[in-house]
């Protein structure tokens, strides 16, 4: 009859299951134990052999119980970053041996890099309009000509509006990314499209762009966070208007495609060069030609859309031809959305791109 494992048996089981290398050595550096993760580097070939040599160097240097750290970057593929740390093993205050942990910090490093880039981008995006506002205000204080005063005031207004917009988008993105206040309910597609159109109608009128709707089934519904979904479609319609010429039409469509519900926004505007298609969903990414237009936005709109798709276990797709126009489609899956409603968890989504 098998007996239940005792706490003494469980400890080695636990140590061998850790997603972390654990190595124990005598005080003179002789290795007496490695768990399964650490075993992977014994007799390893290619760049992984570097881990073993870093380990023996660390054990050498840490003799006598020194606490040391050493990083090993493996150029792969796949690229990996490992961190080795030594600790003294003490008994009655005496160093009886050494313990070394080997940790895979690849993902933590990647997240740290993303965070650093993000902060650098945010600082740049905020500093640019703040700098412009300072210069404009200074010039304005010395201007007498009413025409110049009016032009400078307009630019001041535009720059402060842009600054406010960037801050709003940053707050929206952070709220949506953190998954905070995800409030699923049964939402009608009609209400999502209506709130997106209401939000953009005034800008569309100013730009001379018409908004059209093609929805054959008015009863379509989806389980999701109404505010997030309206914000995503609102962003897509806003972009479609921004990057279209006067006289053109932006069309919103909602249709069932197999198991999926497709919400799309099509324009006949400037389109997106193929080389930029896979980057437009990144935070702060803008296509150069769009940037030069006075209408250039914050570069955060599509990052928000992508995150809304992610929160709804859906995906977002773009088809675009430069000079002809673009279609952005948010795919939602009613059954997967229903499951989310039950578990309130998000599943990973994809971005797909077609030139
Ligand atoms: P922005 O606030 O600059 O519009 P987005 O994240 O919404 O930022 O979009 C990123 C970039 O993708 C835009 O700067 C623009 O270059 C391009 N883009 C987005 N939507 C369209 C569209 N409908 N037509 C052409 N280019 C677009």
How would you describe this structure in keywords?
alpha+beta; 26% strand; Helix Hairpins; single chain; 3 domains; Beta-Lactamase; Heat Shock Protein 90; binds adenosine-5'-diphosphate; 46% helix; 355 residues; elongated
What does this molecule look like?
With 355 residues, the chain is of the alpha+beta class. The protein folds into three domains: 7-104, 2-Layer Sandwich (Beta-Lactamase), CATH 3.30.450.20; 107-178, Helix Hairpins (Orthogonal Bundle), CATH 1.10.287; 181-354, Histidine kinase-like ATPase, C-terminal domain (Heat Shock Protein 90, 2-Layer Sandwich), CATH 3.30.565. Helices cover 46% and strands 26% of the residues. It contains eleven helices and 13 strands. The protein has helices at residues 7-17, 36-39, 49-61, 106-142, 146-178, 189-207, 226-242, 274-277, 288-292, 301-311, 334-343; strands at 21-26, 31-34, 69-74, 80-91, 94-104, 184-188, 210-215, 221-225, 249-257, 260-267, 315-321, 325-332, 351-354. The strands form three sheets. Strands 7-9-10-12-11-13 form a six-stranded mixed beta sheet. The protein has a five-stranded antiparallel beta sheet with strand order 2-1-5-4-3, sandwiched between helices. A two-stranded antiparallel sheet has the order 6-8. A hairpin with a 5-residue loop joins β3 and β4. α4 (106-142) packs antiparallel against α5, α5 (146-178) packs parallel to α10 and α6 (189-207) runs parallel beside α7. The longest helix has 37 residues, at 106-142. The protein starts with 6 loop residues before the first helix and ends with a strand. Residues 345-350 have low confidence and may be disordered. Bound molecules: adenosine-5'-diphosphate (ADP). The site of adenosine-5'-diphosphate has 23 residues, from α7 and α10.
